[in-house]
């Protein structure tokens, strides 16, 4: 009995020790630095164009008049402004498409570092546009900044998912979403009239982009590359062990190395698969569909419509024009607090309840917002209810849908499939982003106050799909998550493994021998998915 109690006590101590070692200093610095120079800039560029919109349009008009001798007509000015806002998503799509070969060749960390070339170039173009008198520089800068965002929103979640222990994979993955929110909030603060929201100062809003990039360039080189990338794709065991030791804060990492090698032995090779191969792989069919649905809903649920057109929505709600910039700050603050809350509870509650619950709450608040906007002229306090609904929609989005899709994309797929999966997720993400930015003004014009019912329907459809399809992935390895999907993919686990790499099955000894031989020769065994 005493031995049993002693054994239980030791197990508890081991668990506590394991919990303490999960968050090492290097892991925290890598995640914060990586996110600050990546997802922070994405969020910042979503909101930064709102405050100086009037001054930028005036700059467009003055430039046009100086060149052609007459003022630009209203339709052309609106078109130029719409292009300025929406080309960010076009650049993002380009970045999402080119990220796979980049992360394969340079690695996850080096991709994040090289990506700063796009950010600095874009910042210089946009901040110098007024001085040079060229609005084309501003538009080109937005495209290049979009490329930066497209690369970072794939490379950063990939890097974070590969350096984190599975016990805190969700919390660390939420760092991406938290810094998007902080970026949005920072863009709103710097855009206030007292800071850079003035006619002579708006170029500084774009010049500020250089600061996070430089910080990342200075700090990130001193941190290791993804240990999984080093071990499985570069076959460098010694560097991988050192990376594990740095990120986990302990000397003995033999268990972690063996865990990754065991996954690799099951996979039988680590040759990167193409998008077409991934789409044809029956064993991950529902994983791919789920990523497409979550990423589609992430953009189409209507939150970006609120960010792009915050000022007009608050005007419709009856808020005084001079007060709008300060009321807008509350949206960024609520978003940040909700994202931090999600990061703190995701490992306790899991991905499913936060994701489904977030979409479900958005349905409710979109419905109430529609009613309040429709009837606001009849009841004097309804504009305040509209503001509450907007804040509640933002909070509901950030507790789940705002970050978990990136986490799931990293969790669903094995090493060789992950880059292609992130390319698919990124393509859906940016196409949906572009569609919302382009179509929302027409939807708003046609449906008036009923426009948000479209987003409510999308959120409802997403929540329903996830309720029936999405398994809980908290604290699970890739193989355990694959097993959870095996029944829906109509495969036994054994057949599922064969589907990853079709061909004649080999004995475990033969597989291990081949893998070891492959690593020793510095080659990767060829396999077709």
TrEMBL record:
PROSITE patterns according to UniProt: MFS, SUGAR_TRANSPORT_1, SUGAR_TRANSPORT_2
Keywords: Membrane, Transmembrane, Transmembrane helix, Transport
Localization annotation: Membrane
Polar residues biased stretches: 510-521
Stretches for region Disordered: 501-529
Gene Ontology cellular-component terms listed: plasma membrane
Topological relation to the membrane, as annotated: Multi-pass membrane protein
Chain segments annotated as transmembrane: 21-42, 79-100, 112-133, 139-160, 172-190, 202-223, 288-309, 324-346, 353-375, 381-408, 420-441, 447-470
GO biological process: D-glucose import; dehydroascorbic acid transport
Domain Major facilitator superfamily (MFS) profile residue range list: 31-474
Keyword Coiled coil tagged: no
GO molecular function: D-glucose transmembrane transporter activity
Pfam families: Sugar_tr
PANTHER family, alphabetized: SOLUTE CARRIER FAMILY 2, SOLUTE CARRIER FAMILY 2, FACILITATED GLUCOSE TRANSPORTER MEMBER 9
Record-stated family: Belongs to the major facilitator superfamily. Sugar transporter (TC 2.A.1.1) family.
Protein name (record): GTR9 protein
Protein's organism: Sula dactylatra
The organism's taxonomic lineage, starting at the top: Eukaryota, Metazoa, Chordata, Craniata, Vertebrata
Gene coding for it: Slc2a9_1
């Amino acid at each position: 009995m005493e031995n049993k109690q002693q054994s239980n006590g030791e197990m508890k101590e081991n668990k506590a020790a394991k919990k303490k070692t999960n968050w090492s200093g290097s892991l925290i610095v890598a995640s914060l630095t990586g996110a600050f120079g990546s997802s922070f800039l994405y969020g910042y560029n979503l909101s930064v164009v709102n405050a100086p919109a009037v001054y930028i349009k005036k700059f467009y008009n003055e430039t046009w008049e100086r060149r052609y001798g007459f003022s630009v007509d209203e339709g052309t000015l609106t078109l130029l402004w719409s292009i300025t806002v929406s080309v960010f998503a076009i650049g993002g799509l380009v970045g999402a498409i080119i990220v796979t070969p980049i992360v394969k060749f340079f690695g996850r960390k080096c991709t994040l570092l090289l990506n700063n070339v796009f950010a600095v170039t874009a910042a210089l173009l946009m901040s110098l546009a007024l001085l040079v008198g060229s609005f084309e520089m501003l538009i080109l800068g937005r495209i290049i900044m979009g490329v930066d965002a497209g690369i970072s929103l794939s490379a950063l979640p990939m890097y974070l998912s590969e350096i984190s222990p599975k016990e805190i994979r969700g919390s660390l993955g939420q760092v991406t979403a938290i810094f998007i929110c902080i970026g949005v909030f920072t863009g709103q603060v710097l855009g206030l009239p007292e800071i850079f929201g003035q006619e002579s100062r708006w170029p500084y809003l774009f010049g500020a982009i250089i600061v996070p990039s430089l910080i990342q360039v200075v700090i990130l080189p001193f941190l290791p590359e993804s240990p999984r990338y080093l071990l499985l794709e570069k076959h460098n065991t010694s560097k991988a062990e050192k990376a594990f030791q740095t990120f986990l804060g302990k000397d003995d990492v033999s268990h972690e190395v063996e865990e990754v090698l065991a996954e690799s032995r099951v996979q039988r090779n680590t040759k990167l698969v193409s998008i077409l191969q991934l789409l044809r792989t029956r064993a991950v069919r529902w994983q791919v569909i789920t990523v497409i649905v979550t990423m589609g809903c992430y953009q189409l649920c209507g939150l970006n419509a609120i960010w792009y057109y915050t000022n007009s929505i608050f005007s419709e709600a009856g808020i005084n024009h001079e007060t709008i910039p300060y009321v807008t700050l509350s949206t960024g603050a609520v978003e940040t607090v909700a994202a931090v809350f999600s990061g703190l509870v995701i490992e306790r509650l899991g991905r499913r309840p936060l994701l489904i619950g977030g979409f479900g709450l958005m349905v409710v608040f979109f419905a109430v917002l529609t009613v309040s906007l429709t009837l606001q002229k009849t009841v004097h306090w309804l504009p305040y209810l509209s503001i509450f609904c907007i804040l509640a929609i933002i909070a509901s989005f950030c507790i789940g849908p705002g970050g978990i899709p990136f986490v799931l994309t990293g969790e669903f797929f094995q090493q060789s499939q992950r880059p292609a999966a992130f390319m698919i997720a990124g393509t859906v993400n940016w196409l949906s982003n572009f569609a919302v930015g382009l179509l929302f003004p027409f939807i708003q014009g046609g449906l008036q106050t009923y426009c948000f019912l479209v987003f409510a329907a999308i959120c409802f459809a997403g929540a329903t799909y996830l309720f029936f399809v999405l398994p809980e992935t908290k604290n699970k390895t890739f193989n355990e998550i694959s097993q959870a999907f095996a029944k829906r993919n109509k495969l036994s686990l054994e057949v599922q493994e064969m589907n990853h790499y079709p061909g004649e099955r080999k004995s475990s000894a033969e597989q291990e021998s081949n893998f070891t031989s492959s690593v020793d020769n510095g080659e990767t065994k060829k396999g077709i998915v």
